[in-house]
Structures are given as C-alpha cells and as structure tokens.
From TrEMBL:
The keyword Phosphoprotein applies. This is Response regulator transcription factor. GO terms for cellular component: cytosol; protein-DNA complex. Coiled coil: none annotated. Residues 2-119 form the Response regulatory domain. The modification 4-aspartylphosphate is found at residue 52. The keyword Protein transport does not apply. GO terms for molecular function: phosphorelay response regulator activity; transcription cis-regulatory region binding. GO terms for biological process: regulation of DNA-templated transcription. Pfam families: Response_reg (PF00072). It comes from Eiseniibacteriota bacterium. Keywords: DNA-binding, Phosphoprotein, Transcription, Transcription regulation.
C-alpha cells in the first residue's frame, strides 16, 4: 500500500519513509502542505498518510479539512505527527479529523505499527464496500 508522507523536515521525512519501507509500504514524500494537496487532489492519490501538523503552505489541520470537504473522496486514514505532546494537542488533531497521533521524536516500530493499523482499516472498508456492491447487484 502507498503512504503519503508529509513532513517538512527532510531528515525526519526520510526517517519516516525508511521506517515505512522496512514495513513493506511504498512511500511518496513531500515537504509542505501545498505539494501534499496537489497529490491529494488526484484520484489515484494515496489513501494512507503520515501528516505533519506544522508545515509551510497548508498545515495538517487545513489539509484534513479540505480532504473531508471533498465530495466522493475515497476513505482515507491519517496519522498526524507533531512535537506537541499535551493531551489538548492530541484532542485537537483528532477533532480536526486525524485518525491517530504520534509525537516526535517517534519510535520507528511504533509509527510503522500505527500505519499498519490504518492499512488494515482501509482494507476492511474496501472489503465491506465490495460486499455491499455484491449484495446490491440484481440477481441474474
């Protein structure tokens, strides 16, 4: 599964990508919200994301708001990352539409495991959608 990695710091972005690639994920990395948004507007964009809270252009919360406002957008799963560690910050990210939250610096195994949870979630959603379509098909 492809993962969009949106982290503004080059070294941190490469560390995230390396951790995910070790887990078998394909990654697409960008360093700012505007570049991420250009990718996310495409129909074939990754549905699984590691998204930094604070970046140039659009921040993580703005990207989430735009994603949720897109009509017909396929389900997605977002792991928000930040140096913010207060419980209020975690709540704000989840209320903005993130599905999970990891503080930086992160443990590579934990981040990979959280992204794997997102991948399983999306696979279950896809299987459910296929089953619903199957059940709605007229009998031949």
């Amino acid at each position: 599964m492809r993962v969009l990695v949106v982290v503004n710091e080059v070294v941190a972005r490469r560390a995230v990508e390396a951790a995910l690639q070790r887990g078998g994920f394909q990654t697409v990395g960008v360093g700012d919200g505007l570049a991420a948004w250009e990718i996310l507007k495409r129909a074939d964009s990754p549905r699984l994301m590691v998204l930094d809270w604070a970046m140039e252009g659009f921040d993580g919360a703005e990207i989430l708001a735009r994603l949720h406002a897109m009509p017909g957008r396929a389900p997605f799963h977002v792991v928000m990352t930040s140096v913010r560690t207060r419980p209020e910050d975690v709540v704000a990210a989840l209320e903005a539409g993130a599905d999970d939250y990891v503080t930086k610096p992160f443990h590579a195994g934990e981040l990979r495991a959280r992204v794997q949870v997102g991948a399983r979630h999306l696979e279950q959603v896809d299987a459910l959608e296929r089953r619903i379509a199957e059940l709605l098909r007229p009998a031949a």
